[in-house]
Amino acid sequence: MNEPWYPARAVVDLDAVRGNVRVLRDAAPGAAVMAVVKADAYGHGLLPVARAALAAGATWLGVAQPAEALALRAAGITARTFTWLYAPGAPLAELVSADVDVSVHAPWGVEEVAAAARAAGRPARVHLKVDTGLGRSGVMPDQLPEVVARLVALQGDGLLELVGVWSHLAFADEPDHPTVRGQADVFDRAVEVAERAGAHLEVRHLANSAATLTTQHVHHELVRPGLAVYGLSPVPQLGGPDAFGLRPAMTLEARLATVKAVPAGQGVSYGHAFRTPRDTVLGDVPLGYGDGIPRHASGSQDVPGAPILVGNGPSARMLHVTGRVCMDQFMVDLGPDATERAGDTVVLFGDGATGAPTAQDWADACGTISYEITTRLGARVPRVHLHAEENPA
Ligand SMILES: *Cc1c(COP(=O)(O)O)cnc(C)c1O
Q1: In this structure, is residue 6 part of a structural domain?
Q2: What separation in Å is there between the alpha carbon of 63 and the centre of ligand 1?
Q3: Last residue of a domain, one of 201, 230, 259
């Protein structure tokens, strides 16, 4: 499948991505789906995932940064693409020329987008970001009338089209949280302000993965799921991926680089945070924080580290990171009767169906969210994409 000598790799099943996008389309039947592929598709590989999402019926792609949108265009992807996070001086003219939809999230952005449209010689398609309560980026409601008036005036000059109003939820992962309704109300009033000023909006969008799967009243014309595209549950306290028909796309695996017997009392890895209580066999897994493995996955004498599935086939065993995670590797206590050999497979996380731990298990072990587990995976880990041939070129 890949070089036989790989020390580690992330296998990404694009069939799972396509299936997950279909689940999201079914969850929001009245809305178009924007597959959020920022941060290298949450670590899964920007271009193959973007193509798979489009093949399964997503009609928009969403990325945080302008460079990510331009990377999609450079690869020949022409689907409707939206980008939303930039500071003054961003290459907005390049985005407008490349037919990328852009967000305006602050008053200064209005003039920069207008200047970009002049430079590009064509109107910019603009989505106005409203801070409905997340307290992150976006125009505050009290500034809206002024910003909207300016956008509508520039639209009259032919410099832009105000095609969308959008926002983002603070508690989408707690669907019953009162702020969800509260933000939706602020959002609806912002839309009214835009429409009363003369905007003809094509899309209103507010829903990430969690809201797409749980909160129909915020779907509007467009939903923006990211995490669920990759088959991970955005609401783990309500159910895992299978509760929603999702399948995790990424399997992170490595091959044991060393297997060796050590005596009782052997300190293991930096700081000897673990000391072998008996004669045992240690395995060396060639993945570390230089590859994005959280150092918080480390084990100690009292607390086992993150779970891993060691060995091939039916004899595979669930074990744990032993001692501290290093930059390039971590150790596992295989026990005195280990039969594993160097070269055997270790699965850190996968889709769960094979008995391997999941990215959610790793998130729980490391005190974080599954988003961070896949997204932080480093460039040194090759991504191997399965079933790419079913994507259109
Ligand atoms: C990342 C992001 C999304 C996708 O969120 P998920 O929780 O991964 O579905 C949607 N919208 C914005 C603005 C984002 O930053």
Answers
A1: no
A2: 9
A3: 230
**pLDDT computed for residue 30 by the predictor:** 97
Does the active-site annotation cover 38? yes
Q: What is the pLDDT of residue 390?
A: 72
Sheet holding 383-386, edge to edge: 258-262, 280-285, 330-333, 317-322, 307-310, 345-349, 250-255, 8-13, 383-386
Query: Are residue 226 and residue 314 in the same domain, yes or no?
Result: no
pLDDT single digits (tens) 120-166: 999 999 999 999 999 999 999 999 999 999 999 999 999 999 999 99
Nearest atom of ligand 1 to the alpha carbon of 225: 9
| Closest residue CA from atom 6 of ligand 1 | 226
Instruction: State in Å: Cα 226 to ligand 1 middle.
Output: 6
Q: Burial code of 25-53, b = ≥16 C-beta within 10 A, e = fewer?
A: bebbeebbbbbbbbbbbbbbbbbbbbbbb
pTM listed for this prediction: 0.97
List pLDDT tens digits, range 185-214: 999 999 999 999 999 999 999 999 999 999
Q: How, if at all, do strands 330-333 and 317-322 pair? A: antiparallel
Residues 83 and 175 in one domain: yes
State whether 80 and 216 are in the same domain.
yes
Binding residues for substrate: 136, 327
Hey, which of 168, 169, 374 would you mutate to test ligand 1's pocket, going by the most ligand atoms within 8 Å of its Cβ? 168
Q: What domain count does the chain have?
A: 2
- For residue 379, the one-letter residue type is A
Please give all residues whose beta carbon lies within 6 A of any atom in ligand 1, as ranges: 36, 38, 168, 208-209, 224-227, 234
Determine the Cα–Cα distance for residues 249 and 164; give it in Å rounded to an integer: 31
Catalytic residue among 42, 129, 270, 289: 270
Mind listing the pLDDT tens digit for each residue in 262-271? 999 999 999 9
Atom of ligand 1 at shortest distance to CA of 224? 10
Residues 223 and 123 in one domain: yes
Distance (Å) from CA 146 to ligand 1 centroid: 27
